[in-house]
Each structure stands twice: as structure tokens, then as C-alpha cells.
Amino acid sequence: MFRDFQTIEIDTGEAVLFTRRAGNGPALLLLHGFPQTHLMWRDVAPQLAGRFTVICADLRGYGASSCPPSDSAHAPYAKRAMAADMTALMSKLGFGRFMVAGHDRGGRVAYRMALDHPDRVEKLAVLDIVATADAWDRADARLAQGYWPWSLLAQPEPLPELMLRGSAEAVVDNALQGWGSSPSAFPPDVRQAYVDALRDPAHIHAICEEYRAAATLDREHDHADWAAGRRRRRSPPRPRGSDRP
Fold first, then answer.
1. C-alpha span between 168 and 172 (Å, rounded)
2. What angle, rounded to 10 degrees, do the helices at 201-215 and 79-92 form?
3. Confidence (pLDDT) at 232
4. If we measure between CA atoms, which residue out of 7, 4, 52 comes closest to residue 30?
5. pLDDT tens across 162-212, in order?
6. Distance set, CA 166 to CA 28, 123, 156, 161, 188 (Å)
7. Domain 6-227 has CATH 3.40.50.1820
8. CA pair distance 220, 67, nearest whole angstrom
9. How many Å apart are CA 94 and CA 220, to the nearest integer?
10. Of 115, 110, 79, nearest to 212 (Cα)?
């Protein structure tokens, strides 16, 4: 799937991030969503590598990346910590400035990178999201029913972990079939990779911690930015893609 891509594990000092790299030109970092991994970019990344140096990485706690210990505030899984990961990763790869595109959870990491590290992020694209605080502040029955991970996975430990542990296949199928445009867009080996990533207890806990952080610290960070007048300029929305969870 990632023919001609180099596979690297980058130790940022806080996490070890599984990374693919290929191409030449301006650096472009691609970040995935839930319940996906870097594999969501499997069709796009090779095409972009003709024009850019493309880097696809698994977020901390996802895929083949490591799962740093969390704390009572869920701070190690706040988007601020994940954004610091990715900024450090790009430094390790030798890129001072770069572009970043993120989908779903990766989109939240991407805009946090742009807010916290504006001197590093040259261009930003976020797919299929609104700001985390906006989503929570406007939460209603539609959000609760249509985007159940937001509230379910943010519940206190261990209930969400126990529920995910026995339902990896159902969770992945619900995401790919319910949120994506067509199940045929996901080859069996890609689906299986997503399922396998959701069967590891450490990754399950990390993902739940990321959702808990979204409901707490990420909201606080967004509100603090808004109060200080720090917002990214909005661009016209793009059509929704087929790989949306």
C-alpha cells in the first residue's frame, strides 16, 4: 500500500511514532482519525509524493505508535501533547516549516499545531471537523446519536475500555459503514488493520484517554485561545471524503 515509502519509528522523547515517508519537495504531514491509522492515506499519499515530501504518522496511542502513560487530567492525550509530538517528529526529520492536513481526530491535532506552533505550520487543512469546543458547546441529540464515541469513550475508566475490548470489529464496521460512503472503499486488509489496532488494551485505554481529554482539556484550550483572540482564519468547506469516521 505504501510502495516506495520509508518506514521509520521516531522517538520524540515523549512517544515513539510510527511513520511513513516518501517523495521530494515541500513537507506535508498527514494525520488520521478514529478508528483509523496512517493507512487511511494509502491512496492519497503516493499521489502526493510526486509533488511533496509526504509524512504519514500514527498519532500517539493509535496504530503502531506507542502509548505513553496518562494522568488524572488526561493531559498526555490532549491535542496539545499530540501536537507537540508531531512538531517534534517534523523537527527530527529535518523540517522547520511544513504543511499539515488532518482528518477527524488528526484534524484536531492539526489545528492545535497551527495554534500552538504558528511559526512551524505553513499551511493547514482540516477535514470533516469543527473546533472541539464548538462541537461540545453545541452538543445535542444529533451529536449524541450520530457521533457516539464523543460521549461514550469520554466516560470514566474502565467502562469504555471494557466495552471496546470486546467489540473491535463492530466498532470498526460501524465507523466504516456508517460514517464512510461505501464499505467497498476499505479493502479487507485495511479493515483488519483497524480492528487489530483496537484489540490492544494499551491502545484502547490511550484512545479513551484522548476522548476524555477532548471533553475536558481540549475544550479549555480552545476557549482560552478564543478569549485571547487566537483563531485560525476559516476557508470554504470542501466536499466530504469517503474515509470519514
1. 6
2. 120
3. 58
4. 52
5. 999 989 999 999 888 877 667 678 899 999 999 999 999 999 999 999 999
6. 36, 40, 18, 9, 20
7. yes
8. 23
9. 32
10. 79
